[in-house]
Design brief:
This protein is an alpha+beta fold. It has helices at about 15-20, 60-65, 70-75, 80-85, 85-95; strands spanning about 5, 10-15, 25, 30-35, 40-45, 55.
């Protein structure tokens, strides 16, 4: 099954989003978040408008991907692209549960 949902600006990895919705993002500054709820605390900088978000976790640093922490911060910040990926994520989870 496809795990990516294109939102126009970027593709949201539904597996990472599934893990990201379980995290807690706390807004520290206008574009900076502390994300907790996983095995350790992480810092996310959503950057200026149009700039690529950054995180201090290994998934972001080594795989060069938007990680679950970035998705949690974007969700907390009300990013329409991430919010629109929740429906396909739920539909995928429901279809997996029906098997």
């Amino acid at each position: 099954m496809d795990t990516m949902k294109s939102t126009g600006a970027f593709a949201v990895d539904l597996d990472r989003l599934e893990r990201g919705v379980q995290l807690v993002a706390e807004k520290i500054d206008i574009r900076r978040f502390r994300v907790t709820g996983g095995s350790s605390e992480h810092w996310v900088d959503l950057g200026a408008t149009g700039a690529r978000p950054r995180c201090d976790c290994g998934d972001y640093l080594w795989r060069d991907r938007d990680c679950k922490h970035i998705l949690a911060a974007m969700l907390h910040d009300g990013n329409a692209g991430v919010i629109s990926a929740i429906g396909p994520m739920v539909a995928r989870l429901r279809s997996q549960a029906d098997r």
